[in-house]
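step=encode ok
step=design start
structure_in=
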């Protein structure tokens, strides 16, 4: 089976997030449902009673979030170099 033929439907992966800001989630959960990719951000929390838990936020994963960099359009100013 080719890696591109692998079916992720109904499966998920959890990654510890490489945070650059405190507001970013501690973990990211990625999954596919009905052919659409989703992401859940999970934050470590502590209740008033001192119990640890995770809170989360669900959102569709957009194309721009999967790109590692943006390519800037070239400028054609007529100069050959």
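sequence_out=
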């Amino acid at each position: 089976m080719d890696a591109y033929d692998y079916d992720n439907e109904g499966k998920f992966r959890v990654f510890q997030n490489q945070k650059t800001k405190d507001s970013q989630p501690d973990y990211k959960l990625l999954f596919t449902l009905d052919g659409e990719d989703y992401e859940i951000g999970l934050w470590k929390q502590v209740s008033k009673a001192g119990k640890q838990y995770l809170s989360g936020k669900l959102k569709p994963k957009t194309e721009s979030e999967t790109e590692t960099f943006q390519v800037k359009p070239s400028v054609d100013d007529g100069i050959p170099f």
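step=design ok
step=annotate ok -> Helices lie at 63-66.
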